[in-house]
Amino acid sequence: MEPLAPEPEEEDFDLLSDKIAVLQTQVLDELKGCSVWLIGMMGSGKSTTGKMLANTLRYSFIDTDTLIEAAHEKRPVADIFAKDGEPYFRKVESQVVRELSAYKSMVISTGGGAVLLPENWGYMHNGIVAWLSGEPSLLARRVAADGISKRPLLATPTPTPDPFDGSSSSSSDASPTSSAASSSESTASSFSADSASSSSTTESLSAVEARLSAMLADRTKFYENADIIIPLTGFGVDVESGAPTAVVMFRLLKSLLLRIQTTKAEREEKRKFTIEGAETQRTQPRSMRVVDTPAQAAAALAESGLGPDLTQH
């Protein structure tokens, strides 16, 4: 659920710093080496937040995309997608997730699509899974600022001009009239360059947001399997850019602590489980009791004086 207003600590960075220090000690005591997996869409800040969380918890930080690139001669993820295909990438990604799941005391940042394979959830749930959740508009602004070309699922090839297209004739083939017209158009275009660039940027941002919205709609059902959800909503001056990393950290540590404490309470309740009626009977339920044989039952009756003494025969 998105917060409707900031917590008091989120508006005072001195107070926020103190609160994070307190949470750091509490979470460390409760985690006991349990790893934390960060999931979320591109632009959600998994790597940035993950590094800060790892530093705070004195954990190791691992980015699955970085490991995959290292195993492929440092080829960028976008290049692996383009040359080897997404199915191949997802297979390798799953192998990395499986191997990392055996380790403790790690903060692991996953690729945005790591949630798509069911087996990955079995591996990630060896630790605590946190979903960094942001609106498509926020994610689009962040991705565009970072560079769309780095995102293989968003990058689209730039059309190559057709050399046989008559509209792209060389200047040597142009008539004096067309050259003059071209010069006039060039002069006019210089005045509208800024507005055209602005319009193009707006259109690109809208296209990215639309694509991210569609992807998020498809993936939400997977992301909702996370143990905790951390909203990236910003307030005041942070409305456009989203919550600062320190604020996301505060929300993450707070949610981690609550999750651990809730899980411990649930386990304690299970230990207190009793079978209804067992205390009044002061015995085991009928289906679990050891029943006497007929001979043992008759002997017991004889001893109590309520039945014949069969031992005299």
Could you please describe the fold and organization of this structure?
The protein is α/β, with parallel strands linked by helices and 313 residues long. It has helices at 13-31, 46-57, 64-70, 77-84, 86-100, 118-124, 136-146, 176-223, 245-271, 278-281, 294-304, and strands at 36-39, 60-63, 106-109, 128-133, 228-231. Strands 2-3-1-4-5 form a 5-stranded parallel β-sheet. Helix 3 crosses helix 5 (86-100). It is elongated and about 100 Å long. Mean pLDDT is 81; it is low at 156-198.
Can you summarize this structure?
By secondary structure, this protein is α/β, with parallel strands linked by helices.
Q: Low-confidence stretches at least 5 residues in length (pLDDT < 50)?
A: 156-198
Cα-based radius of gyration, to the nearest Å: 32 Å
End-to-end CA span: 80 Å
Q: Rough shape?
A: elongated
Q: Determine the mean pLDDT.
A: 81
Per DSSP, the total helix count is: 11
Helix-strand sequence: HEHEHHHEHEHHEHHH
**Lateral strand order in the biggest sheet:** 2-3-1-4-5
State which percent range the strand residues make up.
5-15%
Q: Which structural category do the helix and sheet elements fall into?
A: alpha/beta
Largest sheet: 5 strands, parallel
Q: How many DSSP E strands? A: 5
Helix content: 40-55%
